[in-house]
Amino acid sequence: MSLLRELELSLTRRHLFSRVSTGIGVAALSSLLEAAGEERDPKTSGLKSLPHHQPKAKRVIFLHQSGGPSQLDLFDPKPKLKPLFGSELPDSIRRGQRITGMTSGQKSLPVAPSIFDFKQYGKAGTWMSELIPHTAKVADDIAVVRSIHTDAINHDPAITFIHSGSQQPGRPSFGSWVSYGLGSENQNLPAFVVLLSLANTPGADQPLFSRLWGSGFLPSNYQGVRFRSGSDPVLYLRNPDGIDRDTRRAMLDGIEKLNRMRYEAYGDPEIETRISQFEMAYRMQASVPELTDLSKEPESTFELYGPDARKPGTYAANCLLARRLAERGVRFIQLYHRGWDQHGELPSNIKLQCRGTDQSSAALVTDLKRRGLLDDTLIIWGGEFGRTVYCQGKLTETNYGRDHHPRNFAWWLAGGGIRPGLSIGQTDDFSYNITEDPIHVHDMQATFLHCLGVDHTKLTYKFQGRYFRLTDVHGTVVKKLLG
What we know:
Alkaline Phosphatase, subunit A, 9-stranded mixed sheet, alpha/beta, two-stranded antiparallel ribbon, 483 residues
């Protein structure tokens, strides 16, 4: 290939316009920049046009329970199933709906009633399982939604759909949309932080991909920043041996000059993103160690969150860290906790899973409330789908497994404009189909954005000739959920 042809192929339209100094090139570039660039608030770096209305929530903590918690064993009691133990799931209930390849080959789809007891809690009498006694204690502070449904039946497309509004990878994540639109109240920490934990249960190795907190086609500075457990919460943040803070500052100043020269030559906005990310990393060198140092937390805090709160990387420790991030004005805090994909041995595994998550989830609600932060913090707890009423594998009186079930599943929500003590949604006697208040994933996304003061139809970004949004072309705010 000739050098001239190689140069032609490397030129993008942005590069071309940046090199045209007169005439139609300048006009075209000006038009592009005007269409793509909205004015941003210098204090938060969010869009000046947001919020669209008075927000109830300033920040989000999303406690994603990866794998699909069983609504039948946690929030959706079905006492009429007891005498139907082992009977075939009626065709009138299944209605020919698709099931996964893991159970489609079974000769039978036997009904498996939950072996766990349910009681009503709080002033509103919210039904909850014996597996989550700590969550039951905050029943009057949360809203339980039993009638969510999704389009996906397998993990990867389902979790991608929950967090990006599309089953196909490549769209911006929920946290990236919020970061892009609203910016951050703390310029020394990222607007969007991600924390991961792994359950202490067999088979809890379901993968999570970094694209779940990626920025997609939004500028890359809106992607989530993953904090890790251990001495280096953020990779490559610590100065290497022999490099002090003054040397780091001098190095960054030199790199910025080079990047500015490159930006003046090409006009690529990703170069400015790179500059801002270098500066954020420099500020984080001071802010992150203070954030992750729990030595000044009182003993009562660890008693509230449970003994695992002292162990970095556990779900309990991440819940405590989420509270500390919320206190410091981080806009979107995403926790992913694996281990809910219980195709077999569900009774024993879900006990272990709840033992590792129940106390600290409820503690987060209690802790934020007593610090005056719950009213403007939206907490979301839930997985990508639910579980089937029929058993996967061998069914006994004390043991069963459940397959994926997208037709209905349960989440709980708290704070940030959500009506507390509410139970919404009804399902049939088999917890298979929704009979009252069906709520699609896009409806939930629209409602969450509404709590943040954002009209989900107006937070858009033009990419490849089309205006995209988190809710695609769907979504209706669920007004029943709003306080």
